[in-house]
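Support request from a user on the community tier.

User writes: "When I paste my structure tokens into the form, the page sometimes reloads and wipes my input. The last time it worked, I copied everything first. Here is what I submitted, just in case something in the input itself triggers the reload:"
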């Protein structure tokens, strides 16, 4: 019996996928549930498992866009599992040895070295001097290797002329995920009134808390006490104070959410992924760190699902891990705002009339000005700053150990 394997639906609104890679070859024997291909949708890369055991016949090539429900391969379930080496391997071993290549022609004898080798004629000397070049930088083609005027002219490239360095180029097809991300980012720039407001955060209080409790936290919960839990908790608090930032436009209506599903931008092997931490407002520091770690691992290993990356109400992106000092993050549609974190640098700041060196991070909030006014955007970012600079009071209710579940 021959089984037709069709492309399953990866999720709502997805009508086609692209074959990113076949993990088996045409004619291979595959086991049921064995991963046979990786397919790209416009939201994630997913593995395609074999629906039965048997000999596989591929019906699509890498790079092909195939509709959901379309046949991508056939599996002959009546075929017996081969023992030992496959026929394909045996054929390869019996293949004739490649013919011996003819011997290369002998290289011509090197030019005879004389007192004139590398010497420049008066005209060539003048040209090289004008261009600031030495005679040992030029190969002479005149008698006995003498550098002629023509050699000097050709050896000195004019402005804009390639100087002999590598000038190769390569061309590769963008994945469906990358193309969709590009389309979405361009549409955001074209279809929203996007503005960005900035502020700076003194990270000293968080540094002090982490230095004091990170070892206990790791020992008890098995995850690190990072910056993302502080930022996520600060964001959920600010979203409750400024609900307009936790909203989005749907044609002529504004949808506001009474929950905080926070999208966290993660760099994966196939590009930027944005998994969602659901109901982050109800999670503890341990809960946030554990969920972010789980989603990040799944994204980097290519196991993230479409459902885990849809439905966020607000996004946090951290360009600081790559060394970014300041940026204007682009909104993740259909959301209306995104918070950008950046690197932490020791900077001189005024504290009670004195200059002190503090670890400072610049933060940026990009927002859709169609539904978020300046008061809400600036107030939201100030609320985030206040919570990060006073976490014990505003995020932990003066009980740090209880908040960290120690």
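"...and here is what came back when it finally went through:"
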């Amino acid at each position: 019996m021959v089984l037709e394997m069709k492309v399953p639906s990866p999720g709502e609104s997805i009508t086609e996928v692209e074959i990113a890679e076949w993990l088996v070859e045409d004619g291979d024997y595959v086991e049921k549930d064995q991963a046979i291909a990786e397919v790209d949708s416009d939201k994630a890369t997913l593995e395609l498992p074999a629906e039965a055991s048997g000999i596989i016949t591929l019906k699509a090539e890498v790079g092909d866009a195939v509709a959901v429900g379309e046949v991508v391969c056939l599996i002959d379930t009546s075929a017996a599992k081969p023992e030992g080496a496959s026929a394909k391997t045996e054929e390869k071993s019996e293949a004739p040895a490649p013919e011996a290549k003819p011997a290369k022609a002998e290289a011509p004898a090197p030019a005879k070295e004389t007192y004139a080798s590398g010497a420049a004629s008066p005209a060539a000397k003048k040209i090289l001097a004008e261009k600031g070049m030495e005679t040992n930088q030029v190969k002479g083609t005149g008698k006995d290797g003498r550098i002629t005027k023509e050699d000097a002219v050709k050896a000195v490239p004019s402005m804009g002329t390639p100087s002999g360095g590598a000038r190769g180029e390569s061309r590769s097809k963008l994945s469906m995920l990358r193309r969709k991300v590009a389309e979405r980012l361009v549409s955001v720039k074209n279809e929203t009134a996007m503005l960005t407001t900035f502020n700076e955060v003194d990270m000293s209080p968080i540094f002090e808390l982490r230095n004091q409790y990170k070892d206990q936290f790791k020992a008890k919960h098995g995850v690190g006490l990072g910056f993302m839990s502080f930022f996520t908790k600060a964001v959920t608090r600010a979203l409750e104070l400024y609900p307009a930032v936790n909203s989005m436009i749907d044609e002529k209506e504004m949808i506001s959410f009474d929950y905080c599903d926070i999208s966290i931008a993660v760099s994966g092997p196939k590009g930027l992924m944005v998994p969602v931490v659901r109901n982050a407002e109800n999670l503890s520091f341990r809960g946030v760190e554990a969920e972010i770690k789980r989603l990040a691992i799944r994204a980097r290993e290519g196991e993230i699902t479409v459902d885990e990356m849809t439905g966020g109400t607000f996004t946090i992106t951290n360009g600081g891990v790559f060394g970014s000092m300041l940026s204007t993050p682009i909104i993740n549609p259909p959301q209306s705002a995104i918070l950008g974190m950046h690197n932490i640098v020791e900077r001189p700041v005024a504290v009670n009339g004195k200059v002190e060196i503090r670890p400072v991070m610049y933060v940026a909030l990009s927002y859709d000005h169609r539904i978020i006014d300046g008061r809400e955007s600036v107030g939201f970012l100030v609320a985030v700053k206040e919570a990060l600079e006073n976490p014990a009071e505003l995020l932990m209710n003066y009980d740090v150990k209880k908040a960290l579940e120690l």
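Agent notes: The reload is a front-end session timeout and is unrelated to the input. The radius of gyration is 32 Å. The longest helix spans residues 204-221. Escalated to web team.
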